[in-house]
Amino acid sequence: MIDQGDYQIAWQAYLGCGLLAAVLWLFIVRRIPAAFLRYWLMLAGVIFLFTPVPHPLNPAIWVPGNVAAVLSLMTEGLESAMPIILTMAAGQVLALILAVSLLLWFG
Which residues pair with 52 in a beta bridge? Predict the structure, then answer.
């Protein structure tokens, strides 16, 4: 069984590193002149980093979707990774919808 303290420390470390990566990504993308592309790339990167999914072998714990998809694909195969990949794809569709909304809102 996974120790709750280790689980929380792992998520804190992931969120800290992910926040740093997201800030760096935002600094890179902010110079793009096309507003829609800028909003979409910002949101797509953040959603890609921070989408949690239930672990394929233990649904009681949550793991980062990008990490779980890659590890599931490498160890279990495509059938095991497909629900995670679909969740990540839904997140990217959400990023597109939010980018269009931001473009219409801030025009």
Answer: 64
Question: Which residues have CB under 8 Å from 46's CB, separation 6+?
Answer: 22, 25
Entry pTM: 0.81
Residues 6 or more apart whose CB falls under 8 angstroms from that of 95 comprise 40, 43, 44, 47
DSSP state of 2: -
- Return the structure tokens found at 38: 């800028």
List the pLDDT tens digit at each of the 107 positions of the chain: 677 788 889 899 999 999 999 999 999 999 999 989 999 999 999 999 999 999 878 888 899 999 999 999 999 889 988 999 999 999 999 999 999 999 999 87
Residue 6 dihedral angles phi and psi, to the nearest 5° = -65, -40
